[in-house]
Amino acid sequence: xxxxxxxxxxxxxxxxxxxxxxxxxHLRIKQHxxxxxxxxxxxxxxxxxxxxxxxxxxxxxxxxxxxxIKGGSRAKKIQLIETINPEWNDLYYEIDNYL
Length: 99
Prior knowledge:
This protein is α+β, with helices and mostly antiparallel strands. It contains 5 helices and 3 strands, in the order ββααβααα. The longest helix has 12 residues, at 59-70. It holds the Pfam family GIY-YIG. This is GIY-YIG domain-containing protein.
């Protein structure tokens, strides 16, 4: 059983959001921060601030949740972020405190 995570990253001014799914949250956010994939949407728009995430016991559940969030409006994504992170802080350095 492979665990999974959904996450939302934002740019510095919080004007652009990206929703993703991964089995390794630390590694994936590090890739965003280092722009490991320079032609990707998140790299082009400098989205490297982790503002929201959820963990799942199975990656399939994370994929289902990712699709649900991606299908929602920007307002719903903002509401979701602000339930756990009203200041829009970068949660990358605090991931272990939440897991």
